[in-house]
C-alpha cells in the first residue's frame, strides 16, 4: 500500500467534542464558550480556532453577570488578530436586551475603545430592541464593543404607535443612522 502525503495544515492540532469552557482575559474570567466541536489549527504563525457545528459564547462582567452573547452555526477565531467570524444563523444580544440577527458577523476584540470597529457586517441585519422596535440594516452595520453605539448602512425601520394617542413614536428610514 503506497504512502499518502497529508497536508499538515489540513489536520487540527487539537480536536475537542462537546466543549464547555471558561476563557479569561488578563486573569479575569470573561467568557463562557459552548460548542459541539472545537478544532485548533496552528500553521506557521497563523493559528485559528474553528467551530463547524454551532457555538454559543457569553461575555461576563467582573461579577459574572452576562453582558452579552453570540450564537452562530459556524465560527472562526483568528488568535493573532483577535477577530471572530460568525457564519450562519448568527444571533447577538447585548446587555440592554437588543438582539442582532444576520448571516455573517465579525467581532474585532482588538478594536480601539469607543469606535464603531468592534462588531460589523456587510450583510443584512435585523435589530430588535427591548421595546420591540425593529430596525433593518439592509447593507449591514458597525458598532462598538458594547453594541450600544450603532451605525446602520442603508437602514429601514419599524415603528411603534402609541395607541392611546394614535401617534407615531419611532421611525427610521435613512442611508446612515447613528445612535447618539
What does this structure look like?
It contains no helices and 16 strands. The chain has strands at residues 14-25, 28-43, 46-51, 55-60, 66-72, 74-78, 83-93, 99-108, 119-121, 125-128, 134-137, 141-143, 150-157, 160-162, 167-170, 173-178. The radius of gyration is 19 Å and the shape is globular. The strands form two sheets. Strands 1, 2, 3, 4, 5, 6, 7, 8, 9, 10, 11, 12, 13 and 16 form a 14-stranded antiparallel sheet that branches. It has a two-stranded antiparallel sheet with strand order 14-15. Helix content is 0%, strand content 60%.
Give the tags:
180 residues, mainly beta, globular, disordered C terminus
Tally of helical segments: 0
Order of helices and strands: EEEEEEEEEEEEEEEE
Strand-pairing-aware structural class: mainly beta
Which range does the strand content fall in? over 45%
The total strand number stands at 16
Layout of strands and helices, then pairs:
Blueprint: E1 14-25, E2 28-43, E3 46-51, E4 55-60, E5 66-72, E6 74-78, E7 83-93, E8 99-108, E9 119-121, E10 125-128, E11 134-137, E12 141-143, E13 150-157, E14 160-162, E15 167-170, E16 173-178
At a glance:
The protein has 180 residues and is an all-beta fold. It has strands spanning 14-25, 28-43, 46-51, 55-60, 66-72, 74-78, 83-93, 99-108, 119-121, 125-128, 134-137, 141-143, 150-157, 160-162, 167-170, 173-178.
Amino acid at each position: 500500500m503506497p504512502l499518502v502525503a497529508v497536508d499538515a495544515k489540513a489536520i487540527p492540532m487539537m480536536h475537542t467534542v462537546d466543549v464547555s469552557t471558561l476563557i479569561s482575559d488578563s486573569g479575569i474570567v470573561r467568557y463562557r464558550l459552548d460548542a459541539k466541536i472545537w478544532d485548533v489549527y496552528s500553521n506557521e504563525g497563523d493559528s485559528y480556532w474553528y467551530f463547524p457545528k454551532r457555538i454559543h459564547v457569553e461575555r461576563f462582567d467582573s461579577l459574572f453577570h452576562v453582558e452579552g452573547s453570540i450564537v452562530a452555526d459556524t465560527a472562526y477565531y483568528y488568535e493573532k488578530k483577535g477577530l471572530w467570524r460568525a457564519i450562519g444563523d448568527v444571533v447577538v444580544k447585548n446587555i440592554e436586551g437588543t438582539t442582532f440577527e444576520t448571516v455573517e458577523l465579525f467581532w474585532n476584540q482588538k478594536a480601539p475603545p469607543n469606535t464603531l470597529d468592534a462588531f460589523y457586517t456587510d450583510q443584512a441585519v435585523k435589530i430588535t430592541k427591548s421595546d420591540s422596535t425593529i430596525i433593518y440594516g439592509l447593507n449591514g452595520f458597525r458598532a462598538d464593543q458594547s453594541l450600544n453605539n450603532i451605525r446602520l448602512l442603508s437602514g429601514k425601520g419599524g415603528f411603534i404607535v402609541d395607541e392611546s394617542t394614535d401617534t407615531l413614536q419611532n421611525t427610521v428610514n435613512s442611508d446612515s443612522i447613528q445612535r447618539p
